[in-house]
Amino acid sequence: MDGQQLAFGLCVSVTACLGGGWWCLRRLHQARLLADTPTSKIRSAAQGYVELSGRLLEQPEAVIVAPLSGRSCLWWRFRVEKYSGNGESRRYRVVESGCSEAWLRLADATGECLIDPRGADVRPASRDVWYGDTPRPLWNRRAPTGFSLLTMLGGGGNFRYTEERFQAGESLYAIGDFRTLGGGGQAFDPAVAQGAVIREWKRDYRGLLQRFDADRNGELDTEEWEQVRRAAEVEAHQRQRQAVASPALNQMGRPREAHPFILSSLGKTHLIPHFRWQALGGAALCVAGALATAWLLNGYLHPLAR
């Protein structure tokens, strides 16, 4: 084995070892986090990283249609692949893909929560795969509704279409960053709120001068700045009263920390074993990479020791 072959082999084996180890630890951490996080009710959920479970509801006045099948849904993700290549290298290659950014509306027995799916690990139960001869399926050839021999054999055209959807009424497991806006659910700090109002007003400095520059010299002196601070304090308290009077709005999105953000049609009783099996696969890849690295180094260094 020459030096170039050895370098390539070591690059592959070390990458497999490190990548497999990282994947194993990541999946174990995620499985442990899901197991240790209790399911919360929407009305009583704490602010921060929480786990919810309920059913998906339709969004009022929102009409969402899946791009490949033309079916109405709440969220979609699709992929179009073309079977191409030469000889043994022929395989399906992605030519188009897309994902919905429509917010989801989750409800349990205590309330509702809007979910921003961007950045989430989304796992819908509804998934269709079918084949055709055009880059986009014809509208009169909808996605299959069940098992077919043609689908199993992978025939029927050079293009393969994959579409996943969330449907109204489906159960949904969600774990992510939970926040309640309005309804007095957020702590009120007068000094912080006052500062936020002043910073907002400073963005339109010309308007600030028109309101508080009494002597019209183009600057705000100490007394005028004091008037700005008093007015901002009044504005901050008024906004707080309006927030308390408004109905609470619950939202979930991607966590700021490196925690999993998962939306799944199946609960964590399915996800935790799945993550553990993936961790086992990562561990096996790590061990295989380590053994391959040791074998390559031994084969290279052994002749040198003679």
TrEMBL record:
Keywords: Membrane, Transmembrane, Transmembrane helix. Residues 200-235 form the EF-hand domain. Signal peptide: none annotated. GO terms for molecular function: calcium ion binding. The chain crosses the membrane at residues 277-297. InterPro entries: EF_Hand_1_Ca_BS (IPR018247), EF_hand_dom (IPR002048). This is EF-hand domain-containing protein. It comes from Pseudomonas mangiferae.
